[in-house]
Structures are given as structure tokens and as C-alpha cells.
Design goal:
Radius of gyration: 34 Å
Strand order of the largest sheet: 7-6-5-8-9
Structural class: alpha+beta
Number of strands: 15
Order of helices and strands: HHEEEHEHEEEEEHHEEHHEHEEHHE
Shape: elongated
Oligomer: single chain
Helix content: 25-40%
């Protein structure tokens, strides 16, 4: 039995990746809990598991006394010397127990505690695995897509999690069996185990894609200052470098546009505007309104971060964008409220 037991623990360690020492600790605790039932819960049961010798020793430690006060914890000298001749009053004696003597109910209790311990270990491992991926980009396999809710069940390593419909790119079709990239927004410990929050719409996904694709971002030569995104449609990203010999926008676009093309492909054709960050608000806002040309930027209220951008008349629609998207993304990217004005001054409205 001992040999089979130790083989089973090794198998659990290999299959679930739970350290054997942790399992022995939980199993020992489970056996003690189970055996204590026969002694009215008294804390006199001990369990030693020796992996090297492949032996399990379960015993009760009782006090050797002249007169028994508690039969659960006490033993007379005569009874003690029947077990060990050297026993003396005032000392303790260890009495070996056989697990088969525990009874069916106690055995079931032990099994339950062992299973619980294994589940706790698995949850702990899952939490650590997920936490190591927090705010990171990971590749997941699509296991199932719910035809009613549209939620997708994804496989991440040995674990599963759900990508809600609300965190999927609008218009994107997910196919079971395909692999997709997702961004880990947050990891929390819930009552039923770790909960991982993932997204395909979060700006962090674009940020991580650029870090993977552009070596100068990965090594810190180029810094991503901000990202604003409307998933599935358009993203604006502001980049900056202190190195005068490096063109941050050009590096992100890549030779013949290959780097940004690779990212656009991963995002299913989402348009990406890469702009140069500047500490000068006028320069930054002007760049953020790309692809529109800008004649001038007037700072209206610096404390409220409000400005007015004047654009050529024929660029007005481009500056505002479809349903205001271009200026909306520029506002999020820069943190400035932007009024758009045509050069002729004919149109005085603002977005």
C-alpha cells in the first residue's frame, strides 16, 4: 500500500505540477483530522510520511499516568509497558495506528480533505500562473463560442477562461480551434478560484503588439507615451525617443511599412495612426489630428487643457473624422479638449 501511495503522489506531481512535499503535508493533515474523530477531536494524533523510505507512520501520543483522568489521552503504566517496557510515569508513549482501523466514515473524511488540498494547490498555482501574465499579451486557443451570448471560452495553458462578447472586437468572427492574441487586463482571486479578465479591445493589446514588433520599443529606445483606441476601427499611438538619431514614427512603421502591417493584420485590418509625441501641446495636438493637415493650434485655457485647431477647409471632415472619431481619438491621446475650426472661419461649430 505504501509503495502504491507514493507512486500515486508522484503521478499527481507529474500530471498537475503540484510539489510532492505540498501533497504530503496536506495528506498528513487529512489523516490526522480523520483519526482524531476516534479520540473526540483531541490533538494527540501524529502522522509522519517518509518519502525516502516510502513509509507512513500514524500514531497516538498518550501520557503515561498512575491514574487515568482522560481515556483519550492517558494510559496506565501497566498498559504502556505492554507496548514499551521502558515506559515510565510522567512520560509519553507513541502508539502506532493502522489506517484500516479508522473506519469508512473517517476514510471518507480523509479523502475529502486530500481532494480539497489538491484543489487549493491547483487554484494557487493557477493564480500564480495568471498573475505572471497580468498586463501581458498571451496567445489562447478558442475552445467554444456560445451561439446565444457570443462569449468565447479560451484555453490558456492548462486552464480555461471566458472572453466576453463585450471584450471582443466588433465585427470579428471567432472560430473554434483558432488561436488568438488577448490582453490580460487584471487577475483577481475569487471564491471559486482565480478570475482572469481578458480583452481584445483594450489599448494595452496594441501597446504590447508594438513592443513585440518594434525592437526599439522593447529595448527602451522608443517610448510609447499614450494609446487611444476604438477597437476594430482605428487606433492612435504616440511615440517618443530621446535619441536624436532615431525616427520613432519611422521605426514603428518599419521598412516598407512591414512592422505596422503585421500589427494591422493581427488586429483584423484596424487602422493605426502613429504620431510623434511632443511636450509642446500645440505640436502634440497637431500631430494627433493626423491624417488631417493643421494650420495652427491656439491654446484657449492651459489649466483646463482646451485648445482650438484651425484646419484647411477641405480637411475639415478629415480632421473631425467619421462621426467625430478622429478628433475623439486625438482628445483621448493628448488629454486636451480640441475644437476644430476651418481656415475660412465659415463653420464655427466644434466637435
Amino acid at each position: 500500500m505504501s509503495k502504491e501511495f507514493f507512486e500515486a503522489v508522484k503521478m499527481l506531481e507529474a500530471e498537475k505540477g503540484i510539489p510532492a512535499d505540498y501533497l504530503y503535508e496536506k495528506i498528513s493533515a487529512a489523516i490526522i483530522v480523520a483519526a482524531k474523530h476516534d479520540y473526540n477531536g483531541k490533538d494527540i494524533v501524529h502522522c509522519d510520511i517518509d518519502e525516502e523510505k516510502q513509509k507512513i507512520k500514524v500514531y497516538v501520543r498518550k501520557n503515561v499516568v498512575e491514574e487515568i483522568e482522560d481515556p483519550d489521552t492517558d494510559l496506565t503504566l501497566e498498559e504502556a509497558q505492554a507496548i514499551r517496557k521502558s515506559a515510565k510515569v510522567g512520560k509519553t508513549i507513541d502508539i502506532p495506528l493502522k489506517t484500516k482501523d479508522f473506519g469508512r466514515i473517517v476514510a471518507q473524511t480523509a479523502k475529502h480533505v486530500i481532494r480539497q488540498g489538491i484543489r487549493e494547490a491547483e487554484r494557487g498555482q493557477m493564480l500564480q500562473e495568471f498573475k505572471s501574465k497580468n498586463q501581458e499579451l498571451i496567445t489562447a486557443k478558442i475552445e467554444r463560442v456560445d451561439p446565444i451570448t457570443g462569449n468565447a471560452t479560451l484555453e490558456i495553458g492548462k486552464n480555461q477562461t471566458v472572453l466576453p462578447k463585450s471584450e471582443q472586437v466588433p465585427g470579428e468572427v471567432l472560430t473554434e480551434g483558432d488561436s488568438i492574441k488577448v490582453f490580460v487586463v487584471d487577475v483577481k482571486e475569487g471564491s471559486k478560484g482565480p478570475k482572469i479578465m481578458i480583452s481584445r479591445t483594450h489599448p494595452g493589446l496594441v501597446r504590447r503588439l508594438f513592443e513585440q514588433e518594434v525592437p526599439e520599443i522593447y529595448d527602451g529606445t522608443i517610448e510609447i507615451k499614450s494609446v487611444s483606441r476604438e477597437a476594430g476601427s482605428r487606433t492612435k499611438i504616440a511615440v517618443f525617443t530621446k535619441d536624436e538619431d532615431v525616427d520613432p514614427v519611422g521605426a514603428c512603421i518599419g521598412p516598407r511599412g512591414q512592422r505596422v502591417s503585421n500589427i494591422v493584420e493581427v488586429l483584423g485590418g484596424e487602422k493605426i495612426d502613429i504620431v510623434k509625441y511632443s511636450e509642446d501641446p500645440a505640436e502634440f495636438v497637431s500631430a494627433a489630428l493626423a491624417p488631417s493637415e493643421v494650420c495652427s493650434i491656439e491654446i484657449i485655457d492651459e489649466s483646463a487643457k482646451t485648445c482650438r485647431a484651425t484646419v484647411p477647409d477641405d480637411q475639415l471632415s478629415l480632421a473631425i473624422g467619421n462621426k467625430g472619431q478622429n478628433v475623439r481619438l486625438a482628445v483621448r491621446l493628448t488629454g486636451w479638449n480640441i475644437d476644430i475650426k476651418p481656415e475660412s472661419g465659415f463653420f464655427e461649430g466644434s466637435e
